[in-house]
Amino acid sequence: MTLLAIENLSKRFSSGGRAVAAVGDVSLTLEPGETLGLVGASGSGKSTLARILMRLLPADAGSIRFEGEDWLSLSGTDLRRHRARMQMVFQDVLGAFNPRATVASVLDDPLRIHDIVPKAGRAQEIAALLDRVGLPASYAGRSIREVSGGQRQRIAIARAIATKPSLIVLDEAVSALDVSIRGRILELLVELQEERGISYLFVSHDLAVLRAVSHRIAVMEAGRLVETGPMRQVIENPQSPAAKALVNAVPRLVTQPTEGPFHDV
Ligand SMILES: Nc1ncnc2c1ncn2[C@@H]1O[C@H](COP(=O)(O)OP(=O)(O)O)[C@@H](O)[C@H]1O
Ligand SMILES: [Mg+2]
To answer: Which pLDDT score is estimated for 257?
Structure first.
């Protein structure tokens, strides 16, 4: 069964008397265990789409089916119950947190809120989550400001997988990281996907990142979806001007072997 089906989604903003169609009539689907790379220039509407999906922002029009639910009409306890199944990793999700918060409290929140593990088992679960993302259990006692950007993204990933989601939305999740650290984070994400069958909506302005993880790529331009196809097809034979410009923006993108998700990062 299709995990996620977005249909005719639209969102306008008005700023300074000018209306912007941030998302215009976008439809897309995502299958279980699949990574859809959502690419587009800055301002093309990617984050707006991600925020609507996460129910952080209401849509003007359109519908979303997620795990068979009419996602945009869920509310109250129904929404809270299903929320655990869709998680998000931002560019710096933990930068928004109290910098004195400990790593343990950041990971404890989803476990407690979604009642994933009883209180007595949470310290052990937090240690297991840290271990799974490649961090020592001793990191639980550190404050968020004491960890590096790459480690912080590992913690953000641990937090996202804590509730056993079927979908993780990643919005520029590795964009702020050095290339070497970025590669290892992408590797971790692909491992977690293979292990748990998680689907990713992977939002990035950078096709080099998406090439490493995506099964399919969808291209946005000025709020519209202008091209969707298998990763290799979009990168090696882009059809739309927007896709061509994004491919040309990455030197040597098409001359490197593209063996499918991740094989050569
Ligand atoms: N809260 C907002 N108020 C007004 N305009 C917004 C708001 N959020 C985004 N926009 C506008 O919507 C468009 C899409 O933005 P965004 O979704 O952030 O694009 P992307 O993530 O692809 O860079 C841009 O023109 C942006 O200026
Ligand atoms: Mg954005």
So the answer is: 53
